[in-house]
Amino acid sequence: MACGAYSIRFHLKLAAGHGPYALANNHLCGGLKPSVSYPISRSWSNAARHATRHSHLIVGNSERWRSSLKASPEDGTIVPGKITVLVIGGGGREHALCFALNRSPSCEAVLCAPGNVGIAQSGDAICILDLDISNSDAVISFCHKRGVGMVVVGPEGPLVAGLANDLVKAGIPTFGPSSEAAALEGSKDFMKKLCYKYNIPTAQYRTFTDPAEAKQYVQDQGAPIVVKADGLAAGKGVVVAMTLDEALEAIDSMLVEESLGSAGSRIIIEEYLEGEEASFFALVDGEYALPLESAQDHKRVGDGDVGPNTGGMGAYSPAPVVTEELKSTIMQSIIIPTVKGMAAEGCKFVGVLYAGLMIEKKSGLPKLIEYNVRFGDPECQVLMMRLESDLAQVLLSACRGELGKVSLTWSPEIAMVVVMASEGYPGSYKKGTVIKNIDKAEQVSPAVKIFHAGTALDGDGNLVAVRGRVLGVTAKGKGIEEARSRAYDAVDVVDWPEGFFRRDIGWRALKQEQTVNY
């Protein structure tokens, strides 16, 4: 299943101390066997250079990137000169990234293309509305003209399309994987094959293109069962079918009616896992994996986790279910083998790995549900609220292959985001409905921040909703109750009759906190 011109063999070992997890070079020989760990550049061959040139990190350009940075001999951290950062995208995740980058001491300016009205009005970034982000040449030209020192690609679409490949080839440091490595998200079949080849725990599955064969498999397996589109489907490609009829309907929708287009022309049918979901993030520079704080999303549209799946109706961080022991298990059984496997397949990964996990009820162990190759939304919002490190410096270190020198500082407080969505989402919804009192809502507490995911201005200058998920009302607190109270107090101030939200975000963490206190 190689996805690059050459297959390069590596092994992994746990880095000493409390730093990231390291990917060690094995003299580019076949097989995975122990060897002494050292930086990959010491035995760089022409084949390795060729493979890596197609998978994001160009070592030949590292000296040029290094010219704007200097190492501190005292603590090994990198002290960058101020840089201009361009964020690609225009949703709630990108707003959160702009918010964190704007607070970074090493960041001279934050630009966002295309951005949105909320990002612009908040002053978190300068929005570039007329830059065609689907045109790599246009983005490269813009970066050169504006002196952009790093590009951070938010959405999965441009990554799968190869924007990072083109930017890195042009010598522009880019946080985000190559199109080859982005197949981890772009194709669930690819991800599943990688899991089975490298013994990464995941649900049992089968892949189908023929609806009759898929239906027979579902009838043989029974319900509940999960039906997934193989390709990118904007958060709408997963059906957790609790009955056979629901599963058969999902198969018809994707394979017969082609409701998801080419994304659903191939489907994955996998076993239903029972347990508690969690989101786990790790920054990866091709050699190291640096875990971020945990978060927990709420995928179902309705209170009590009922109704269809969505892109996410809320989240909080940290997630109590992800203990330090479990974090170590996730790194060693899932994240590290993935980084190793991608490198071995010639698809060296640089960017953020976002693992959607199920902590199984029967075993208490994590299984991989899916990978995303970008920050999750709305999890990014709570992570960026808690991050106290210089984000620009951290991401640039990942681009340069120097995460081994980085440690992260987090606020000890809890962060929670409540997503406000257009009535009817994740189905059809009305666009252009007016939203009022955003400024008043943010004034509920200094710990409140509202991230815009789908807003615009109409002809009369009113703030209006233009997407399914529209606002991410986010707050921090000393505990889950305080964070939750602040977030919902702010939500209640927002005047938007055509919007809705879940009232029970954080219920698992709240229940656990109340149990502990009791």
Q: How do the helices and strands line up, and which of them pair or pack?
A:
Layout: E1 10-13, E2 21-25, H1 46-53, H2 62-66, E3 69-71, E4 78-80, E5 83-89, H3 92-102, E6 107-114, H4 117-122, E7 126-127, H5 136-146, E8 148-153, H6 156-161, H7 163-169, E9 174-175, H8 183-186, H9 188-197, E10 205-208, H10 211-221, E11 225-229, E12 238-241, H11 244-256, E13 267-271, E14 275-285, E15 288-291, E16 296-297, E17 300-302, E18 306-309, E19 314-317, H12 324-344, E20 350-360, E21 366-372, H13 379-386, H14 391-399, E22 414-422, H15 438-442, E23 448-452, E24 455-457, E25 463-465, E26 469-477, H16 480-493, E27 499-500, H17 507-517
Helix pairs in contact: 3-13, 10-11
Quote the average pLDDT.
85
Question: Strand share of the residues?
Answer: 25-35%
As residue ranges, the low-confidence spans are: 4-20, 22-80
Number of strands: 27
Helix content: 25-40%
Radius of gyration: 22 Å
> Number of helical segments?
17
How would a crystallographer describe the biggest sheet? 6 strands, antiparallel
Which strands sit side by side, in order, in the main sheet? 1-2-15-14-20-21
Structural class: alpha+beta
Report the end-to-end length measured between terminal Cα atoms. 52 Å
- Silhouette: globular
